[in-house]
C-alpha cells in the first residue's frame, strides 16, 4: 500500500464538494478524515458542504473543488452541457428514491398515481418518477399533477399531496419521526406505502465520485491523487460498515442538523445502498449504468447517450487493488442491515 | 425614470446594445466555454426553444404576481385611508409599519406553505401581498398626511367636511406618493413570487423552472426564464408609469421619477 | 445665559425628546408584538374549536391558515423552543444558535451593505456626470432589480470562489453572500443617491462655481452633504434589503452558518419540530428591525444638526 | 368710500397664547380691540411675528382666542365661517396643482354643492373679473406668480362672501407685478364693495391700498397705531404724490417707535 | 465717494441668447454696455425676467455671453473668477445647513486651501464685521432670515474679493428687516471700499443704497436708463427726505416708460 508515503512529508491539499448538507449520506468521507485515512495516503482533505442550489459538477469544473460527489444524472447533464467531468467511482449501487404515500390511499405501484397530486423536488430528482410513470403508461404532464415539494414531509402529512418524494435514508425517516395526531404516537411504517424505483426498473445511479476528465488525462499527479483519494474514501466506507457506532458518532460530531437516531437510521440505509458490492465497492455496475442512461435518454433528460469517458474504472480498480492488498474487505458480503429505532424529531 | 426612458430611448438603446455586444463578444473571445453566464444569443435561442414551457410558467407566476400585487395595493391603500383619519393611530402605526417593513418577509414563505397548504396559491400570494403592502401603505399614508398647512386652512375656511378634505386635497396629494410606491411594489412582487415559489408549489412556474434548470447546469434555459421574469417586472413597472401619467395630467413629465421619498 | 448656552439647552431638550420618542416607539412595537401573539393564539383556538366541532369550515386552510399543532404550533411551544437545544450533541439552546446565526448573517449583510453603498454611490456619481449616461443606464438599473435572486445567487457563489484568488486575503463563501446582498442594496442607494446629489440648491452650485471650486470639491463639500437625507432614506431600505439578500443568498448559495441556512434546515425538517422554524423566523424579524433601527439611530445623530425632519421609509 | 355704518368685524379685548403653560408658550396677541366697518379696506402691518396672521386667522375662526371675543357680521366668528361669510387668500396662492384654473375657482362652489353648470358660469364670471379668461384650462404650474394670485383671489370671491381676508397675498411677487396687482385689487374692491382685511409687510402697499392702516408691535402683539389714510381715488400718480410719501413716513415712524433692533 | 478711475467691470456690447436656434430660444440680453468704476455701488433694477440675474452671472463668468465681451479688473471674466476676484450673495442666503455659521464663512477659504487657524481667524474677523460674534457656533436654522443674509455677506467677503455681486440678497426679508440690512450693508461698504453690483426689485432699495441705478427692460433685456443718485451720506432721515422720494419717482418713471402690462 502507499500508506507510508506521505507520513512525514507534506500533505497534498484536496477539496471535496458534497452534493448536500452534512449528514450520514457522506459518512465514509467524514470517517476517512476522522480516522486519518486521507492523511495516510498523503492527502489533506477539505470537505465542502453542499446546498440546495449547489451544483457539484460546476464547482468541480470551475476548479473550486478537486472532486465532487454527485448523482449520476446530475453529473451527466452538465457533461452534456460541456463540462468535461467523469465518474471515477460509483459508490452507491442502488437508488434510494421512493414515492411515499399513506397506506389508506392505496398507492402501491406507479400506475396508482394516476389522477393524483404527486410531489417531487426537481433538481434531477424527478427523473425516476417521470420514467416510472411513463413505464406505467401514464403521461406525467396530463395524468398527474406534479408539485414542487419542499424538503420536508408536511405537504404529505397535511394531505396537500397524495404521494411525496422521499429518500429512504432521510425524508422517509422524517415521517416516522413525526407524531401522528390520531394516535399521539410516531407514525409507523405500516401507516405508509412506498414505491421503490429499484423495483420498477427506473432506478438510476446515485452518489458517485466525479473528477475532472481533462486533468486526469493531462496531469499525472492529479490522476495519482485521484487513486489515493478513492482508495482512502472507500476505506472510510468500509470503516462505516464495520464500525457502525463509531462512524455514526463521527457523523454526529461533524455537525449535521438532524439528530442521533436519524443519523443512525441514515447510516444504516446508506450502508444498505453500498454493501454488498458484488464487483467491489465503487466499481460500476454496467447494467445499472445502462438502465440509468436509457431512462435519461428516453426521458429526454439527456439529448443522447453520453460519450465515452463518462465513467472510467481504471482508477477505482487501482484503488481497490491497494485496499485488497491492505486486507480490507471491498465486497461486504457479510453486511446485513440493522433495525434502528427512530425517536421523535430524529433526536 | 420611466418617462425618461420613454422620452430618451436613444441613450438607453445605445447603452443596451453596447453592453449586449460587449457581453456577447467578451464571452466569445475570452471564455468560449462560459456557460454560467451564457451569451445573450444563446439565451434568446433557449427562450424560443422552450417558449411553450416558459410561457406557461410565466402565466402561472404572473397570476400570483398580479393577484398579489392587486391584493397588496388594495390592502395598503385601504389601511392608509383608514389610518390617516385618526391622528393618534397614524402617529403610532406608521412608525410601527416602518419597523415591520424591516422584516425579511421571504423568511415567512415556509410558514405560509404550512398555513395555507403547498398547493394553495394563497401561500405565494400572501408573500407578495405583504411585500407589496408595506411600501404602498407607508407611502400613501405619507401622501395623505403631508398636506400643506395653507391648503388645510383654506379648506377649513370653506367649512369643508373631513370627507371633502380627503376627496379634494388628501387623495390627489397622495397620488404621486402612491405611484412611486406602486413602481417599487411592481418589481418587489415579481421577486417575491419567484422566491416564494422556490419554497414549493405547482411546478409549472418560473421559480421552479429557473431553479431546476440552474440545478442541472442548464444555465441558458434558466436565464431565458429569468429574462421572462424580468420582462414581467419591467412591464408592470412601465404600466405603473403609464397609469401615473394618465391619472396625473397636471404633472410635468420630468417630475414622474421613482424614488423613496417624494 | 449666553445665546450659545440657550442653543445648547434647546439642543439637549430636543435630544431628550427624541430619546423618549424612540423609547415610545420601542414600547409600541413590543405591545404590538404581544398583541400579535395574542391574536395568533386566539385565532388558533378559534380555528381549532371549529375543527373540533367538525363543521368543516372551508375558509380555514384556503384563505385562512390551518390551525393544527403542526401548522400553527402553540405560542408557548414557540417561546419554550428558544431555550431548548436544537442539536443533541450540545447543550446550546436554540436562542444561542439563532443569535450566532444572526451575527453571521448580520456580518454578511453588513459587508453587503457597505459594498452596496459604495457601488450605489459610485453609480450615482457616475450618473451625475451627464444626463445622457443617466438616461442610458437608469432603465437597466431598474431592470436589474427584477432579476430573481435565486437565479443569480449560485452563480455569484461559484464566481466568488473561483475568481477571487488574486485578493490578498482568503475569499470565503460568506463574502459571496455579501455580494448577493450587494445586488439588492446598491439600487436604492444609487436611485436616491442621484436624486440627493441633484437636490443641491442650484444657487449653491453656482456659488461653488463662483469660488472656482473643482468638480471634486463641489461633490464633497456640497452635493454629498446635500444628499445625506436622501441617502439615509435609502440606507433604511438597503439595510432590510441587505438582510433579505443575505438570507436568500445563504439559502440558494449553500452557505452554512447564518439565519437563511438555519431557516432552510428547520424548514426541511419542519414536521419534526415546527416551533424551531417559527422561532428562527422571529429571530430573522428581530434582526431586520435591529438593523434598520441602527441606521435610524445613526441618521438621527447625523441629521440632528439640520432643519429637516428625517424622511420616512 | 364706504358710508355703511354696519360693523363687519368686531374684535373685543382679544388675547391669544399658544401652548399655554408649556416651555414654548408664546403670547402672540394681547388686548386687541378693533372694529372694521362693512366695505372698508383695512391693512394690518407690523414686523414679522407680531401676530398679523394670527389676528387674521382669529377673524376667520381658524383659531380661537384665549380671551376676548371676535364677531363677524354680527355672528360668532365660527358661525360666520360655517356660513361662508368670508373668503381667504394667502401669500402662497394655495392653488391645488392637480386642478385647472377653472376647477380651482370652482372648488368652494363644489364644496357647497353647486351644480356643475352654475359652477362653470360663476367661474367664467370670476375669470373675467381677474382678466384671465384665456387661461381657464391651464394648470397652476403653467402660470406666473401674479397670475396665480389672481386665480386665488377669484377663488376667494367666487362664492361672493362679504368679507375678504388676505394674508400677504402679494408678498412673493416682484415689486413691479406687485404694484400692478395692487391696482387690480383696488379695482375689484371698487366693483364688488367687499370688506377687505389685508396683511402686509410693505408700507407703500398698505398706504396705497387701504383706508386704514393698523400698525402692530410684537411680543406680545398689540395695536400701536390706527392710521387713517385719505388719499382719495387711487390712480397711478398717487404713488408719486407728496401726500402718499407723507403717509408712508407716518406709518414708518409709527412702526419705528415700537421697534428695537432687527 | 469713490474717485478711483480704475474700471472694475467693463461690459461691451454684450448679448445673451439661451437655447439658440431651438424652440425655446430666449433673447435674455441685447446690446448691453456698462462700465462700473472701482469702489462704486451700482444697482440693477427691472421687471422680472429682464435679465438682471443673467447680467450678474455674466460678470461672474457663471455663464458666457453670446456676443460682446466682459472684463473684470482688466482680466477676462473667467480669469477673474479663477482668481477669485469677486464674492457672491443670493436671495436665498444659500448657507449650507450642515455647517455652522463659522464653517459657512470658512467655506471659500477651505476651498482655497487655507490652514485651519488662518480660516478661523478670518471668520472671527468677518463675524465682527457683520455683528454676529455671538452666533459663531449656531446653525443656519437657528437664525432669522436677516441674520442668515449677514452670514452670506460675511462668507462672500471672507476672502477679500474686490468685487461683490449681490442678486436680490434682501428679497426674502420683510420690509423692516430689509431697511435694517440696507443700513448694515452700506456700513460694510464704507468700511471695506468694495465695488458692489446689486440686483433688486425694489425701487426704494436701489435708490437708498446706490450711487447709480441701472434700469433695464425685458425681451430682450436692455439698459433703458442709467440714473445717478446723489443723496450724500445715507442716514435714517434720508428715507424721508423729498430728494429721496424724487429719485424714487424718477426711477419709477424710467421703469414705467418701458413697461407694458405685467
Ligand atoms: N400654531 C402656533 N403654535 C405656536 N406658536 C405660534 C403658532 N402660530 C403662530 N405662533 C407664534 O405667534 C407669533 C405670531 O405669529 P404670526 O404668524 O401671527 O406672525 P405674523 O405677524 O404673521 O408674522 P409674519 O409676518 O412672519 O407672517 C409668532 O411668534 C409665532 O411664532
Ligand atoms: N438657463 C436658462 N435657460 C433658458 N432661459 C433662461 C435661463 N436663465 C434665464 N433664462 C431666461 O432669460 C431671461 C432673463 O432671466 P433672468 O433670470 O436673468 O431674469 P431676472 O431679471 O433675474 O428675473 P427675476 O427678477 O425674476 O430674477 C428670462 O426670460 C429667463 O426665462
Ligand atoms: Mg404671517
Ligand atoms: Mg433674477
Question: Please, could you describe this protein's structure?
Answer:
The complex is a heteropentamer, with 1 copy of chain A (about 350 residues), 1 copy of chain B (about 260 residues), 1 copy of chain C (about 325 residues) and 2 copies of chain D (about 260 residues). Chain A has helices at about 25-35, 35-40, 55-60, 70-80, 125-135, 155, 170-175, 215-220, 220-240, 245-255, 260-275, 285-300, 315-325; strands at about 10-15, 45-50, 65-70, 85-90, 95-100, 115-120, 145-150, 165, 190-195, 210. Chain A is an alpha/beta fold and about 350 residues long. In chain A, helix 5 (about 125-135) links the parallel strand 6 and strand 7 (about 145-150). Chain A starts with 11 loop residues before the first strand and ends in a 22-residue tail after the last helix. Chain B starts with a helix and ends in a 15-residue tail after the last helix. Chain B is an all-alpha fold and about 260 residues long. In chain B, helix 4 (about 50-85) packs parallel to helix 11 (about 220-245). The longest helix of chain B has about 35 residues, at about 160-200. Chain B folds into 2 domains: about 1-30; about 40-255, MetI-like (MetI-like fold), CATH 1.10.3720.10. Chain B is globular, with a radius of gyration of 22 Å. Chain C is mostly helical and about 325 residues long. Chain C has 2 domains: about 5-70, no CATH class; about 95-305, MetI-like (MetI-like fold), CATH 1.10.3720. Chains B and C meet through helix 1, helix 2, helix 5, helix 6 and helix 7 of B and helix 1, helix 4, helix 5, helix 6 and helix 8 of C. One magnesium ion binds near residues 53 and 167 of chain E.
Task: Describe the SSE topology.
The complex is a heteropentamer, with one copy of chain A (347 residues), one copy of chain B (262 residues), one copy of chain C (313 residues) and two copies of chain D (262 residues).
Chain A: E1 12-17, H1 27-34, H2 37-40, E2 43-48, H3 56-62, E3 67-70, H4 72-80, E4 85-89, E5 97-102, E6 117-120, H5 127-135, E7 145-148, H6 154-157, E8 163-167, H7 171-176, E9 192-196, E10 208-212, H8 213-218, H9 220-242, H10 244-253, H11 260-274, H12 286-298, H13 314-325
Chain B: H1 2-7, H2 9-29, H3 40-49, H4 51-84, H5 87-100, H6 109-116, H7 121-145, H8 149-157, H9 162-198, E1 201-202, H10 206-215, H11 219-247
Helix pairs in contact in B: 3-11, 4-7, 4-9, 4-11, 5-7, 6-7, 7-9, 9-10, 9-11, 10-11
Chain C: H1 3-52, H2 75-81, H3 94-129, H4 131-144, H5 149-163, H6 173-198, H7 202-210, H8 215-253, H9 259-268, H10 274-303
